[in-house]
Amino acid sequence: MPKVRTAQETPLSQDCDNCPIRHRAVCARCEADELRFLETIKYYRRFDAGQTVVWSGDRMDFVASVVSGIATLSQTMEDGRRQMVGLLLPSDFVGRPGRPAAAYDVTATSDLVMCCFRRGPFEDMMRTTPSISQRLLEMTLDELDAAREWMLLLGRKTAREKIASLVAIIARRDASLKLHGRSQSLSFDLPLTREAMADYLGLTLETVSRQISALKKDGVIQLTGQRHVTIPDFNRLVEETGDDTDGGFLV
């Protein structure tokens, strides 16, 4: 069983004003005095790739925002089979106020840094700070939309469309975090290994590698090494996802 680290093992420091996820996180609309209070109840936790953040059913004495890295949400069935049910990308929220136990296993897929808030004080703040509760509601609705999107992706899309969709989702988030608008060319590091992509999308490793190579050969994506992706034309990538959308960036 992977080791769960305590928060005290990896003390970090981050000024809220310079936080890379400040404009998208749960605290995005907080005023200066509200940020000062959050500073008094926050701490940072860092996990290595492959470490478990929390197991399903375990008590969580914190809620958190992903600052950097990526984590997976998964559910283990009685016979031991595991299904990955979601991804946590930078600025995503971990934990549910009012529910002390974790609903899913949370595992760091890459090196992960989380900005954590002690649960009790954070829940108290939610009751008196509309900007926090409103932002959390928006993020919850976005999460619901994402879950519906993944139901379509896993149930109906071809292998090529699944790979294109996953790359497009990560590209949109990366552009939003960097405050990039619509652009003809995007470049970012893919935070998932091909093995993790296969697990998440319900494909074999060979199929993932074959479809990535096909997208590269067709000029939809460019690869430098195994992880660095350049998208020459984002609209072309969106066409490969099979979605009837305009491909606009989430802001």
Strand order of the largest sheet: 1-8-3-6
Major pleated sheet: 4 strands, antiparallel
The overall pLDDT average reads: 84
- Judging from the principal axes of the Cα atoms, what is the shape? globular
In total, the number of strands is 11
Q: Estimate what percentage of residues fall within beta strands.
A: 15-25%
The oligomerization state is single chain
Total helix count? 7
Which structural category fits the helices and strands?
A: alpha+beta
In the residues, how many domains can be counted?
2
CATH topology of the largest domain: Jelly Rolls
Q: What string, H for helix and E for strand, traces the elements in order?
A: HEEEEEEEEHHHEHHEEH
Architecture per CATH nomenclature, i.e. the level-2 architecture of the largest domain: Sandwich
CATH superfamily caption of the largest domain:
Jelly Rolls
Output the CATH class name of the largest domain.
Mainly Beta
Distance N to C terminus = 38 Å
Work out the helicity level: 25-40%
- Give the uncertain stretches in residue-range form: 1-10, 246-251
User: What is the CA-atom radius of gyration, in angstroms?
Assistant: 18 Å
